[in-house]
C-alpha cells in the first residue's frame, strides 16, 4: 500500500480495546470527527469486515453522504473502511491502527485519497475543500485529540 495522504498519531492512557471500541463504532466516531457527523447501517449492523454504512458529512452549510465498507476489524489493533460516492466511485480509505504502549496505547489515524484525478475538482467544489490533504491532517489532529479525551475519561 502507498503512503497515506494524511496521518497523525497520539498516545492514549487507555487500553487498546477501549480505543478500538470507540473508533470501530461509527456513531462514537461521528462524535469525535470534524466532517463526519453520523451514519446508518446498510444491511446487517456491526463492525465486521464487509459491513456497510452510509455516512453523513458536513462542512459549514455543505452536506454530502458516502458509502463505507469495513475492510479491517482486528479488535484492539486495526479498524479500517473504504469510502465511495453514491455512484460507487472511490473516495478514500480511513484506517485506525492501535498499538499497546506502556500503560496505554498509541493510536494512528491515516487516510488515503482514492479519488481519480478527474473527480477531485468536482468533489472539492461540492465539499468546499480544495486542499484535501491539508484539511485531513487538521481533521485527524482534532479527531485524535477528542479520541484521547473520550478514551481516558
Automatic annotation (TrEMBL):
It comes from the Bacteria. Pfam families: Polyketide_cyc2. SUPFAM superfamilies: Bet v1-like. This is Polyketide cyclase/dehydrase. The lineage of its organism: Bacteria, Bacillati, Actinomycetota, Actinomycetes, Pseudonocardiales. Gene3D superfamilies: 3.30.530.20.
Amino acid at each position: 500500500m502507498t503512503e497515506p495522504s494524511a496521518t497523525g498519531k497520539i498516545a492514549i492512557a487507555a487500553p487498546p480495546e477501549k480505543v478500538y471500541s470507540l473508533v470501530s463504532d461509527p456513531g462514537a466516531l461521528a462524535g469525535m470527527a470534524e466532517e463526519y457527523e453520523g451514519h446508518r447501517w446498510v444491511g446487517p449492523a456491526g463492525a465486521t469486515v464487509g459491513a456497510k454504512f452510509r455516512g453523513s458529512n458536513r462542512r459549514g452549510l455543505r452536506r454530502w453522504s458516502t458509502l463505507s465498507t469495513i475492510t479491517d476489524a482486528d479488535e484492539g489493533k486495526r479498524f479500517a473502511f473504504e469510502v465511495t460516492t453514491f455512484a460507487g466511485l472511490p473516495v478514500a480509505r480511513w484506517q485506525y491502527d492501535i498499538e499497546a504502549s506502556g500503560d496505554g496505547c498509541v493510536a494512528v489515524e491515516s487516510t488515503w485519497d482514492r479519488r481519480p484525478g478527474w473527480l477531485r475538482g468536482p468533489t472539492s467544489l461540492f465539499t468546499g475543500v480544495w486542499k484535501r490533504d491539508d484539511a485531513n491532517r487538521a481533521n485527524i489532529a482534532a479527531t485524535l485529540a477528542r479520541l484521547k479525551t473520550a478514551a481516558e475519561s
